[in-house]
Protein 1
Amino acid sequence: MNMRTVLSTLLFLVMFFTQLVFAQEKIPWADLSLEERQILQQLEPQWDNLSIERQQRLRRGASRWQQMQPQERSQARDQQQRFQSLSGRQQQLINQRFQRFNNLSQGEQRRLRNIQRRFQSMPEAERTRLREQFEQQIRQNNRRPAQADNPRTPENQRRIQEVIRQNQNILRQNRNQTPQTVRPSTPARPTPSRPPAPPPR
């Protein structure tokens, strides 16, 4: 009885996951709406070779594009052109960040979008200040591992300067004194030793 229950549960799970796999088949190009095909027309030749996840992502992007206002579309085009003008390494970094963002939970994604909206609504001067502060923090974080091996870190430099400052008076005194000629020491003459006095008789 117990073995039967386990087997039936396993069979049910196998059937369930098989249906899930079949439900996630790739999206045929013909199944896209006319608007989606127009937006994604550059991808038509390679559409069938894309993964299901990429197809779904592109379809969602096309749906968002349809809902955008003309100004939003213009901004999106500008962003795309800026992205295309970046080096391959920079594009790769952006893609990695995008994938990390997509792996976040819906709540985390929403939180980050809200932060981005607040940042965009700030005055330009404030945004510039925050951007510079962030970039400075990144530079400091990137420098830290190298400094661990480097004896000339700012902390060590500060200590060296402090020791020099503390000893400056001594250094000045030594500079102001006239140099004295040092004569080689002559060996001391041995003092003649007298024999002990004879005992009285």
Protein 2
Amino acid sequence: MRTFIAIDLPLDIKDNIYNFLEKCGFYDLKGLTFVKKENFHITVSFLGEQDLTMLLPCLDFISEKRVEYFSTSTNYSLKNIGAFPNLNTPRIFWIGINDKNRNISGFITSIEKELLKIGIISNISKYYIPHITIARNKKNLKFNFGTEIEEELGIFTIKNITLFSSKLTSNGPIYSIVKSF
């Protein structure tokens, strides 16, 4: 089964993102593949094809790491729209997350080190910018946005980490919750 670990977002945050993108005309841009509102999340690690009976017992450490990195009183805000590698030649459009204490980045590095140690992944992300992917530019279209778009889109706390399965279809991926930690 195709799987990944992510920080799922509260429904009101997903709604805020969608409504903002709609209001600013982002969904009118031609040639982009948009992430469906229900699929907005912060990726922790893509695991690829996995046998769940073998995988699930190996992931017990995630709950402990969640408690270690995320206090229920720590708020995270969504801060801007940007793109990788940049806004003029974007491959991925994203919403940035204010991670001033680097808890999300530290959590992801910690999780990936454990996954590497037990052989589930083969390498660790060198540099991670916490973000929510909102669209992909598969046709390598050029844009002229200039600078990142600043907009406050909501504040949330991280309450759990989710293992998702992902089924690829012609209408886009369908994510299902396998387990929450």
